[in-house]
Amino acid sequence: MSQTARGIKAALVGLLVNIVLVVAKLLAGIAGHSYALIADAIESSTDTFSSLVVWGGLRITTRRADAEYPYGYGRAESLAAAVVSLMLLGAAMGIAVAAVGEIITPHHMPAPFTLIVIAIVVLVKEVLFRGVLRVADETGSTAVKADAWHHRSDAITSAAAFVGISIALRGGPGWEAADDWASLVAAVVIALNGLRLLRPAIQDLMDRMPERSVIDQIEISAKSVDGVRAIEKVRVRRLGIEYYVDLHVQADPALSLRDAHILSGKVKGAIRAAVPRVVGVLIHMEPYEQD
Description:
Elements (H helix, E strand, L loop, with lengths): L2 H29 L3 H27 L13 H30 L9 H26 L2 H30 L6 H28 L6 H12 L6 E10 L2 E10 L5 H18 L3 E10 L4
Parallel strand pairs: 2-3
Antiparallel strand pairs: 1-2
């Protein structure tokens, strides 16, 4: 199974689990008079849409490069990650506004059975987060990673709801708003996660150079090719989970055009062998001038 296919499968699993959890939490929250659980259901609904966005983005990245998009459709992955991050921020804002309204307005004490529902949700979401994050780390997908942290944010809101409801039940009359305050705290955590995930997505869209370890691997592999005297102007852009490399290679000025072409091919092969996620290498050959 390809890296992209694994990401698509992870998004679909998350989508199905989220649909079940949204219905369960919404019904339990309404029946149990717990706004924290209802807010949690709202946040889970954004998880559902985020999984759809990630699934759609990864599906688009599988399209072959064509005349209109010669570099392929890898940007769709970064766009999906940015959209998911913005959805997290929107969900946090919505939950915070509603929680403040519930704190101001008196309401019923949450029902004890809602704690059981929340405990199950936290367990399921944490397992889902770990599984999707593992796929994200193995594939290098920013969108899948954003989706994984969306699952973790859902687990956080559920855990906050559990604490808030527990305080409300233990405190008795006058402590009904405890689960609303828990929702407010969870909203802050969700917003921070959204901001943290938005940054790398924007960086990819703006062609920011990847981490130094990737650059070092590319430079070392290029310099290791027999005949390469020096390299310079190494530029790397990321499209989805793939890299495109541009660099200047300096070689013996006496090389024929044919030999220079062969040398550039060896450099390309060495780079792609060292960094398998590199799918394109553009090399500009130059005469080596020691001065």
